[in-house]
Fold this sequence. Notes:
Blueprint: H1 3-20, H2 28-35, H3 40-55, E1 59-62, E2 65-68, E3 82-89, E4 95-99, E5 106-108, E6 121-126, E7 136-144, E8 149-156, E9 161-165, E10 173-176, E11 188-195, E12 204-212, H4 217-227, H5 236-243, H6 251-255, E13 258-259, E14 264-269, E15 278-284, E16 290-297, H7 299-302, H8 308-316, E17 320-321, E18 326-327, H9 332-338, E19 346-356, E20 362-373, E21 376-379, H10 380-392, H11 402-421, E22 432-436, E23 442-447, H12 452-475, E24 486-488, H13 494-505, H14 516-530, H15 535-545, E25 551-553, H16 577-590, H17 598-631, E26 638-647, E27 650-655, E28 661-665, E29 674-677, E30 682-685, E31 691-693, E32 697-706, E33 711-716
Parallel strand pairs: 5-7, 13-20, 14-21, 28-33
Antiparallel strand pairs: 1-2, 3-4, 3-6, 4-5, 6-7, 8-9, 8-11, 9-10, 11-12, 14-15, 15-16, 16-19, 17-18, 19-20, 22-23, 24-25, 26-27, 26-32, 27-28, 29-30, 30-31, 32-33
Amino acid sequence: MNDRENFIGLDKKVLTVFAQNALGDFSIKKVYGILGIRNRQLKDMIKAIIKNMAAENILVKEGSQYHLHPQYVNKETNSKHYTIGIVDIARSGKFFVIPEDGSEDIRIKSSNTSQALNGDTVKVYVFPRRKGKKREGQIVSIEKRKRETFAGIIKKRKDLALVQCDENELPYMVMVLKYDTSIEDGSKVIVRITDWKPSSNQPFGEIVKVLGMPGDNDVEMQSILLANDLPIDFPDAVKKEAGKLSSRITKKEISLRKDYRDMITFTIDPKDAKDFDDAISFKLLENNNYLIGVHIADVSYYVQPDSEIDKEAYNRATSIYLVDRTVPMLPEKLCNELCSLREGEDSLTYSVVFEFTPKAEIVSYSIDKSIIHSNKRFTYEQAQAIISASEYGTYYQPSPYSPQITLLWKVAKILREERFKLGAIKFDSPEFQFDLDEQKRPIAVHVKESNEAHWMIEEFMLLANKTIAEEIGKKLKKKDAKTFVYRVHDEPNPDKVETFKTFVEKLGYKINNSTRDNLVRSYNNLFEKVKGKATQTLIGNIALRTMSKAYYTTDNIGHYGLAFDYYTHFTSPIRRYPDLMVHRLLSYYLSGGENADQKQYEEYCKHCSEMERKAADAEHESVKYKQAEFLADKIGERFNGEVSGVSKWGIYVMIDENKCEGLVKMTSLKDDFYALDEDNYQIIGTETGNTYQLGQKVTIRVQSVNMLKKQINFQLVDTE
Length: 720
């Protein structure tokens, strides 16, 4: 037998060793032993075979061990070892997959990520769990990319171009072989990935849009939108169709609606709001009960199914709120004019009107297509002044509608207290607000404060959403289950709750998860204690990860966070497409319509949930960019802050004054060599034993700002 025949025979034998032990790891020496090989020449051949198989991704190497690549494992006999999930790259750099089935997160080593990026939907081969260890696995395939377009800076070369993207989104240079050579070097562009060989870290792409020079505000905001596959402007067909819509409300249409124009009605919104999609009305009844109406803009009257406006609204699915602009779901003529419940104007609405006792007990309610007249537009600040006068005796400028707002708050306060008694969780993620100059540059940053005026509106909106969901899901279910759009939130995964419990206990907080009531009480106490601290965002995010994200679906499982068995979104059809779907389905069923197509509406729900996530990502990116821009001219300035995170690269610090967050790199700590103590959320000096841990107060100076990466670097003052 010649060497070639020897090699082929050994090739098959080696593969058989791994195929028959698909879940095992073997060193090269172990393979020698299994095959009974003692001959030096044959050992060299086996070594070469194993290395070739690893190079071809038939085998996977981890340290000195090899195992069969999951794609070659028998899927029939080992199907239980596979799962689908979403990639989540932690700030520490660790790579996880969050399974769709809600089971425990899967840790992925850097050698097993298969070019997956943050947010991608992937198929994972789950390794057998080692005793006392967390689940680990390997990504077998990428089922769906979260995004295929990225913003970056073009770097022209002789025969090609490279696009340097934000490394947090795409940590590789994209090679572009064919492009318009007139594009200015250093321009910001949008690149689409067209090819990415499994064995290469070099993706290939094409330039789909040139935005301009980096640093320009419009260029940066457009790059955030386009990179997330979000729109910038409306198509001409949509603008043309919107231009033809009439603001005239006919007598015939009024005759078909419940007329609430005689009730005192007002809107309460942020001072810079332009679209008013909800209003509240109040009337004192002869029996001393309260008639309180929640009136929502009737977008379904103006936006007909399958119209150009409707198709575009569905594609967008949501309005997007960047720091410096709003990208609306509907054209301006609709969102700011026809549908907006503006002061002093008659408006078409969909109303849920409740009769309450003074103790906030619901006597009855009605759901009607309606017409209202807004008497007054209040800002949250104006409404709060009235409530504060009632609650705390503070001075305010009297309003003709002060008695109504005061009584509305008394009802809302009781509703809020009852909701938390029944097990609602007080998730309260801080929202950042920027003061911008005429060039859209940030001149101040602060956290939006939530107060009684916000809570009052929130309670009535929650009540309306819950009531609508019960009207269809609860009432009609007794006769015949109806396809409907629900907003759901799953219960916590027990393993994740245990992990979270361990995490917060090391920070000095307690979690009691013996019962649902105890867990909810623990969550609410914790959120109250960390409010305003740098760790609030981190703890809030990790707490949210113990549960699935809220999403839209036709399969109602209830809303765990709100403690509602039935819940939907009905109150914001100007800015959320699911609310428009709910309006249409509600009208259809209340007029005797048959069951809607469940499969079709489930697809609609999935699309809306996905677009909601994209919009949230874009909004987060715009905040990060503006925070970096805010500190860009403050290099060398000192601020007090708090350690808000730890990673293998260093510690993150959030500034007390403006809530901007930056990284203190390990390499900048000159007093010692520091190592990450991940279990205790700290870094420790190997010589001095000095520690920096989560929540610790520190003083930093701004060292550098990278606008492309939206990255801020700090240096600890006492280590300079």
